[in-house]
Amino acid sequence: MEQISRSIRSGLSERLVRFVGYGFIGAFALACVLPFVLVLSTSLTTERSIQTSGFNFWPKDFTVFAYRIVFENPNLVVGAYMVTIALTVLGTAVGLFLVAMTGYALQRPDFPYRNRISFLIYFTTLFSGGLVPFYLLMTQYLSLKNNYLSVLLPGLLSPFLIIMMKAFVQSIPHAITESAKIDGAGDFMIFRKLILPMTTPALATIGLFIALGYWNEWYNAMLFLTSDVEYRPLQLFLYNVITRADFIRNSSAASNVPLRDMPLESMKMATAIVATGPVILFYPFVQRYFIKGLTVGAVKG
């Protein structure tokens, strides 16, 4: 009888823990979803309604005027999307390959200069050359002004991602590499046939970081891509749309739309939806690998 009562109490406590845990996770998930719902609702609300009633989770005065202004020139929007997608795909593929090779090489015990190179990589996280030397390097020495390579090249390698990849590859026994060498495999074949398949979680996580970096890139594009370039990355294009709308609203030169009706706030939310929509659709496909990759280097008890 005592054993039965203990099992009942254990079952009740387990249910209570699950109830509290699921309730907390549900509340946290709701707190993450509600801001996005608010952004979407605001993007579909008239500017006058925002000024009088504030932000609401359901649009009171429904309108798509903000999206009409954002997509006023569809060719530029499609071109911006194409440029951003091309930079994201190419930069993620090349950057992921370089980060994976660098992390693999730096964890090899038989690589004589791994500690020195690792220190130099880590040193760049503490100090940088500054904006002026970086700008002169890209424009004067590399001649990449108005060239998409000026946006692509800086994001290929990241010290944080290299350290992250190195930590993950260190969890793979070095005996696998040694046995493959005994069988006659070369270093590149070992890396391609053995290391890469075993580092899928880390590759997915690092690839997501690189892809998000390229997708959200606007600063280097603003520095090196002038008006001579017809199509700019999506984030810079949307930034310019907001800047022009703000200028029109604050200028007496506005003629087509009354100043008070310029949907500046709803345009900001609309550009956020346009920029984050594809990322939200893509994230579920790499979510399980991303969660695994976040535990890289974690202490397990």
From TrEMBL:
It is a multi-pass membrane protein. Keywords: Cell membrane, Membrane, Transmembrane, Transmembrane helix, Transport. It is found in: Cell membrane. Residues 81-286 form the ABC transmembrane type-1 domain. The chain crosses the membrane at residues 20-40, 80-105, 117-136, 148-169, 190-215, 269-286. It comes from the Bacteria. Pfam families: BPD_transp_1 (PF00528). Belongs to the binding-protein-dependent transport system permease family. This is Carbohydrate ABC transporter permease. It comes from Cohnella cellulosilytica.
